[in-house]
Design a protein that fits this description.
Layout (H helix, E strand, L loop, with lengths): L5 H15 L3 E3 L4 H9 L18 H13 L18 H16 L4 H6 L2 H8 L6 H25 L3 H7 L4 H8 L8 E4 L2 E4 L2 H13 L22 H7 L3 E3 L1 H8 L9 H23 L6 H11 L3 H6 L11
Antiparallel strand pairs: 1-4, 2-3
Helix pairs in contact: 1-13, 2-13, 3-10, 6-7, 9-10
């Protein structure tokens, strides 16, 4: 349809999945109960943790966040990841990369194109005798190889030129990065494509924060982003009673059995989360509050850091390159 964006496509397809989902259901009547206390609070202002994220000159900052975005996945592997003391899997990876940029400077596109799984294991201090870590480091290397080769072939090896080509549109950045297989976050559900594009959407959001929404950090369509569909926001929504899983799916998750990538269950968890947040935004609007999906993602992500969410139940694990 003329005039629709990639974000419209995500919302439309996720709504379609939610309407016929068999393993995950949205409990609409629980939405007001969940958002009522949030309405009384000041919204969480997106912020950047500069201890775990490198910020320097514009070109180097862009290089860092694009390099990080390319390996910002692995939650299904994180139970096997050697984590830094007190850090989650994500912050373990982000901090190691920040230290590398601070001590040795940015990776060039050419370096990324030639990096190996053993290089990744050394950088992130992971033991590849562990089969799960060997697989994750190999996928990290593949993603960095793809990024480096794409930058060399289309953007003269420049991270900045890639962001310039997006022309201040997050939707364009998503489209540009989708040429790389590991950024093409699209699932096939009952014969139809369902896009999510979690990592490339998050990259636009992170760049806007790191560059203070100026210059190449200005994206004019940030308010159109969907949530960054992963395995934490669905978990919070489930604990809050907005998402309801079938007993079999709950049993698999609680037993820490992997939910296969591309399975109906995995797609339904992500899609129902996206659509549930759209319903939350609609409910907030009816109460006189203008929230974006990015706002709600921040709220739910910060809620998910509360120990009670870990103590109450487990989140789903899927070994995928998309989250």
């Amino acid at each position: 349809m003329e005039g629709t964006s990639v974000f419209d496509d995500i919302r439309d397809q996720c709504r379609w999945v939610a309407e016929q989902s068999r393993h995950v259901h949205i409990i609409v009547e629980h939405i007001p109960v969940t958002i009522t206390p949030l309405l009384a609070e000041s919204p969480v202002i997106p912020a950047l943790d500069t201890n775990s994220h490198f910020v320097g000159e514009t070109e180097d900052t862009i290089g860092f966040f694009m390099t990080l975005a390319a390996v910002n996945f692995g939650s299904g592997y994180f139970p096997h990841l050697h984590k830094r003391s007190g850090m989650s899997g994500y912050y373990t990876i982000a901090t190691a990369l920040t230290e590398r940029f601070a001590s040795n400077g940015p990776f060039t596109a050419q370096q990324l194109a030639g990096i190996s799984a053993s290089d990744c294991a050394a950088l992130f201090q992971q033991d590849t005798q562990n089969a799960a870590m060997a697989e994750l480091m190999d996928r990290f290397a593949t993603s960095w190889n793809d990024l480096g080769e794409d930058l060399v072939s289309r953007f003269n090896g420049s991270f900045t030129r890639c962001i310039e080509a997006a022309d201040h549109q997050a939707s364009h950045l998503v489209s540009l990065l989708s040429e790389q297989p590991l950024f093409r976050d699209v699932s096939l559900y009952h014969g139809a494509e369902v896009p999510f594009y979690k990592r490339s959407q998050l990259l636009a959001s992170d760049l806007s924060l790191a560059l203070r929404e100026h210059g190449l950090g200005q994206f004019d369509d940030l308010d159109e982003l969907t949530i960054f569909a992963d395995n934490l926001v669905p978990h919070v929504l489930r604990v809050e009673g907005i998402l309801e899983y079938t007993p079999k799916l709950i049993a698999d998750i609680e037993a820490e059995r992997l939910i296969p990538e591309g399975s109906d269950e995995e797609i339904e968890i992500r899609a129902c989360s996206v659509h549930a947040v759209e319903l939350i935004i609609e409910a907030a609007a009816n109460a006189g509050y203008r929230w974006t999906a990015r706002d709600v993602d921040q709220m739910l992500w910060h809620q998910g850091q509360n120990p009670r969410y870990k103590a109450q139940s487990k989140r789903h694990r899927t070994r995928t390159v998309f989250y």
